Amino acid sequence: MAEAYIVGAVRTPVGRRKGGLSAVHPADLAAHPLKALIERTGLDPAAVDDVIMGCVMQVGPQAGDIARTAWLSAGLPESVPGVTIDRQCGSSQQAIHFAAQGVLSGTQDLVVAAGVEAMTTVPIGSSISAGLDMGMPYLYGNGWNERYGAQEISQFRGAELMAQKWDLSREEMERFALESHQRAAKAIANGYFKDQIAPLAGVADDEGPRPDSTLEKMASLKPLREDGRLTAATSSQISDGAAAVLLASGQAVRDHGLAPRARIVNLTLAGDDPVYMLTAPIPATRKALKKAGLTIDDMDVVEINEAFAPVPMAWLKEIDADPAKTNPNGGAIALGHPLGGTGAVLMTKLLHELERTGGRYGLQTMCEGGGQANVTIIERL
C-alpha cells in the first residue's frame, strides 16, 4: 500500500505586522524555508517533482506564481516547477494535501508543500477590495445572492455569529486568548520552537506573543463591531511568515536515504454554512476521525487555527477534545496568522511537538473562507 511520509518541516519565525520581517520581499520570505528545508533534509533539490505553495492575496509582489519565483529566489534548480494555490486561510494545508495525494497516487515521489503571506506588504483584502467597493452582487454574483441574500458575508460577522450560537461571552474568550499568549510565551522561553525555525533578517523568535498581556488590558479594548463581543485581543494577529514541508514516497525515502518523521494517516475536507464561514472544522474533524477509524482521544496533539477565539472554543465543545492537548504552545491569537502560510506553519509545529513529547497521532484543522475546512491526521514515526 502506498504511503506518504513527511521528511522535513521548517518555518520562518512569524513576524508582527511592520515587524522584523516586514521589509523582506514575499518571494524571499517564501524562499527562506524552501532553502532551509533542502539543507536540513540533505536532499538533491533537482529530485523534487513539484513545489505547491499556498498564498491568499496573490496580487502585487505575491502575484505571478510565487511558488515558482520563491524556488528560484532560493537559488534552487530551474528544472523544478511550482504552482500557487488558494483555499483561503487553509491554502498551505491544502498544499500539503495535494502534495501527499501526488505521492499516494504514485505519480510523484518528492513534493514540497509550502505557504507564505507577507501581510505587511500585501494587506488582507487586497485581492478583493475592488469587488467589495462595488458591492456584494459584484463580488458574489446573482446566483449567490439569490441563494443567500444580499447580506454581509465576512469573517468578522461569522465570528460574532459563532460567539452568539455557542454562548461564548467576551470574558470567556479573553481568558482563552490570555491562555494562548501564556502558552506561547512559555514555549518560546523553553526553546520549544528553536529546531523548527530558520531565523531570518535578524529575527529568531515569533514576534506576536505578549507575555505582559492581562485580562484588564483586554477588557479595555473596543469591540470590532458595534455591540460585538470580539476585539483585537480575541482575534488572530496580522503577520508575515512562511513554511515548507517535504512529502516523500517510500521509494523516494529508500532511493535518497531520507529519514521519514511521520506518515500521512488521513486527508479530509468539508464544507459548512458560508455565512457562519468559520464552523467547518467541526464537521470536518468528525468526518476525518470516522474515516481514519480513530477518536479524538487518540490524538496526542491538535493544532486548530485560532482565527478568532470562537473557532477553537466551539470546536472544543462540539468535539469534546482535551484543551491541554489543543494548541499546547499557543495559537494564532498569540503567534499570528500569516494567511496562506499558516497551514504549513501549523504542520511544522504539530510535527515538532509530537517529536518533543513522544506523541503518536496529531490532528491539524483550520477554518477557511467560504465555510470550508481541511483536516490532516499524521502519525509520528
UniProtKB/TrEMBL annotation:
SUPFAM superfamilies documented for this protein: Thiolase-like (SSF53901)
Domain Thiolase C-terminal: 259-380
PROSITE patterns associated with the record: THIOLASE_2
Signal sequence residues: none
Keyword hit for Secreted: no
Catalytic center residues: 89 (acyl-thioester intermediate), 337 (proton acceptor), 367 (proton acceptor)
Superkingdom assignment: Bacteria
InterPro entries (alphabetical): Thiolase (IPR002155), Thiolase-like (IPR016039), Thiolase_C (IPR020617), Thiolase_CS (IPR020613), Thiolase_N (IPR020616)
Coiled coil: none
Example GO molecular function: acetyl-CoA C-acyltransferase activity
Domain Thiolase N-terminal: 5-249
Alphabetized UniProt keyword annotations: Acyltransferase, Transferase
Family to which the UniProt record says this protein belongs: Belongs to the thiolase-like superfamily. Thiolase family.
Alphabetized PANTHER family for the sequence: ACETYL-COA C-ACYLTRANSFERASE, BLR7806 PROTEIN
Name of the protein this chain belongs to: Acetyl-CoA acetyltransferase
The species this protein was found in: Sinosporangium siamense
